[in-house]
Amino acid sequence: MSKIVTLGEIMLRLSPEGNKRFVQVDSFDAIWGGGEANVAVSCANYGLDAFFVTKLPAHEIGQAAVNALRRYGVDTRYIARGGDRVGIYYCETGASMRPSKVIYDRAHSSIAEANPSDFDFDEIMKDATWFHWSGITPAISDKAAELTRLACEAAKRHGVTVSVDLNFRKKLWTKEKAQSIMRPLMKYVDVCIGNEEDAELCLGFKPDADVEAGDTGAEGYKGIFKAMAKEFGFRYVASTLRESFSATHNGWKAMIYDGKDFYESKRYDINPIVDRVGGGDSFSGGLIYGLLTKPTQGEALEFAVAASALKQTINGDFNLVSVEEVEALAGGSANGRVQR
């Protein structure tokens, strides 16, 4: 079984029920999630040996986060305990023309203040097949950026494939800071995942396409895919291509490049979206599984796109689908009929 390692922050998500606004509720639903934790859950659901690395307080709220991961089969043995707080984010789910809204309360969380001595990255990467991280982790703090670099170095020492989801977050850092940290880390990366905004803000590559106007034609991306692969030596470059008609109606497809050939997936019309948070993470998890198990990059991409389309029909951050469900959708079964 392939050992998959992810490094990042798991947070407590507090959300109003349904599509209610923050200011009109007296209680919040408590949900666990966070970029790399979401990827670990996806990989565990697909039968891979998934490990999540972070630091959480030793108190009961920290334990609740650990338990949430264990519930879905993620191995938590490398989670360090200590520090003062679990990061929190508030998420208001939009509808129609009203966008979803996220408010962070994550400063000084345990992983943001973790030290290299909290982790034995050589032990963590021993016998690993794949290491995944995202641009959110080094954006949390300078300490977390150093942890990311050390983890990447250990992964390379152990011959581990490294993937990144660029995941730019403007509420965490500026594009100048992002590029100063992210570009040097790219030398460790084999598989680069990111949408058009991420590529521009994290790495300085801009597609020849007006994405805001809904132009998601693959031709506009081919130039930056080639340039990114050439500059950083990526084995694969992949991007989701989202057409955002409203908060609850998106077109969804993706493209991948292996240094020789481009492959564009089929397109899904997701309407209505139930919860799009974690959609990109579910794409990353699906792509990791696909590249490890499918014979071609095209089949790997179709699995990833189908997985992420399904995620957007599920409440919460985690993508709680099986390989069989993803392959049924990728194979053409999209009518939503009751399975009896």
Average pLDDT, to the nearest integer?
A: 92
Order of helices and strands: EEEHEEHEEEHEHHEHEHHEEEEHHH
- Quaternary structure state of the chains depicted: single chain
Main sheet summary: 9 strands, mixed
- How far is the first residue's CA from the last residue's CA? 31 Å
What is the helix fraction of residues, given as a range? 25-40%
The counted number of beta strands is 15
Q: Which runs of at least 5 residues are low in confidence (pLDDT < 50)?
A: none
**Helix-and-strand structural type:** alpha/beta
**Global Rg:** 19 Å
**Apparent shape:** globular
Question: Strand percentage, roughly?
Answer: 15-25%
Count of DSSP H/I helices: 11
Helix and strand layout, with pairings?
Elements lengths: L2 E5 L3 E5 L13 E5 L1 H11 L3 E5 L1 E2 L3 H12 L8 E2 L6 E5 L8 E5 L15 H5 L4 E5 L1 H5 L1 H16 L3 E5 L9 H11 L5 E3 L2 H8 L15 H14 L3 E11 L2 E9 L4 E3 L3 E3 L8 H15 L3 H15 L11 H8 L10
Parallel strand pairs: 1-4, 1-9, 2-7, 5-6, 9-10, 10-11, 11-12
Antiparallel strand pairs: 2-3, 7-8, 12-13, 13-14, 13-15
Helix pairs in contact: 1-9, 9-10, 10-11
Task: Describe the protein's architecture and organization.
This protein is α/β, with parallel strands linked by helices. 35% of the residues lie in helices and 21% in strands. The chain contains 11 helices and 15 strands. It has helices at 35-45, 60-71, 121-125, 136-140, 142-157, 175-185, 196-203, 219-232, 279-293, 297-311, 323-330, and strands spanning 3-7, 11-15, 29-33, 49-53, 55-56, 80-81, 88-92, 101-105, 130-134, 161-165, 191-193, 236-246, 249-257, 262-264, 268-270. Strands 1, 4, 9, 10, 11, 12, 13, 14 and 15 form a 9-stranded mixed β-sheet that branches. Helix 1 packs across helix 9 (279-293).
